[in-house]
Design a protein that fits this description.
242 residues; alpha+beta; Phosphorylase Kinase, domain 1; D-amino Acid Aminotransferase, Chain A, domain 1; 2 domains; 7 helices; 14 strands; 30% helix; 33% strand; binds uridine-5'-diphosphate
């Protein structure tokens, strides 16, 4: 398989594959926060994040969602359908946390009456601002009204499905971010779904996700490993972490 590096982001490299309609996502061990201002390398993180992403994309596929997931090649590669990415970060929330607490006077940890969806523009220079349907469909014309409604409804459904999935594993799903892409006039869930893009709390309120890194709580990789154990089990942990 002749591979060419197509793009390199903060935590992933994207390579071409022998198939024109697929890409290879290589999950790096890097962890970053605050638009890359904070940066470290945590051995084994690429393995944990690729594995968790693969597992969660398969949950979405089995629930009928169209995703880019094709295959997982352990320890840290996902083969995905090549999408034309839409420059939006679409956030689903079950519980108040993070940037929502800066916009709405509610304490973190309060459960919302029903899942909500928010759209942020992917733009590092503007620090990914919150934008609304008017900005997205009428000003920027990134997607049309039908497409934005599809994204909103899928995120809310995913909120409910993953909420139950994590509840069964004694984890609370607080919020998550999804990125979508286009393929043949259809919208697919792309990018990744793991501790970098979701907030997950243990039953006793312990943070398991990237907030451990953002907030300097320590034991960052331990949080990701615990998440992996609840989702996947012990498989592969010995080989990577000894
Ligand atoms: N998120 C993400 N990438 C970003 C910003 C947010 O994956 O660039 C995720 C974040 O991990 C959380 C959800 O989106 O699960 C909601 O994030 P929020 O809007 O609260 O922003 P934050 O507090 O993370 O800046």
């Amino acid at each position: 398989m002749i591979m060419k590096l197509l793009t390199e982001g903060k935590t992933k490299k994207v390579f071409s594959t022998s198939k024109d309609d697929e890409v290879l996502l290589f999950f790096k061990d890097d962890i970053t926060a605050f638009d890359g201002v904070k940066h470290d390398v945590l051995k084994g993180k690429g393995f944990l994040n690729a594995s968790i992403s693969a597992a969660l994309f398969q949950v979405l596929e089995s629930n009928g969602f169209k995703t880019h997931f094709v295959d997982f090649i352990p320890p840290n590669i996902i083969i995905a359908k090549k999408l034309q990415m839409i420059p939006l970060e679409v956030v689903g929330r079950n519980i108040v946390a993070g940037s929502l607490t800066k916009r709405i006077p509610l304490e973190p940890g309060i459960k919302l009456n029903s899942p909500i969806c928010e759209f942020f523009l992917k733009d590092d220079n503007l620090h990914d601002p919150l934008i609304n349907d008017e900005h997205i469909c009428n000003v920027l014309q990134i997607v049309n009204h039908e497409e934005i409604e599809y994204m909103r409804q899928t995120v809310k459904k995913i909120c409910k499905i993953l909420d139950k999935y994590f509840n069964d594993r004694k984890i609370t799903l607080v919020d998550f971010k999804i990125e979508y892409g286009r393929l043949d006039d259809q919208i697919y869930v792309g990018d990744e779904l793991n501790g970098d893009s979701m907030r997950l709390w243990d039953a006793d309120g312990k943070i398991l996700d990237k907030d451990r890194y953002r907030k300097d709580l320590g034991d960052v990789i331990e949080g990701y490993i615990e998440m992996y154990r609840r989702i996947i089990g012990e498989e592969g942990l010995d080989e990577i972490f000894g």
